Amino acid sequence: MRLAPACYDLSLMDALLQPEVLWTLFVFTIVGWVVSPIVIPFILVRLPPHYFDERHPRTWMENHHPLLRWIGLVVKNALGLVLLLAGIAMLVLPGQGVLTILLGVALLDFPGKRQLERKLVGLPTVLRTINKLREKFGRPPLTVYGGSGDKVKV
Question: Where do the domains of the chain lie?
Answer without folding.
Answer: 29-53+75-154
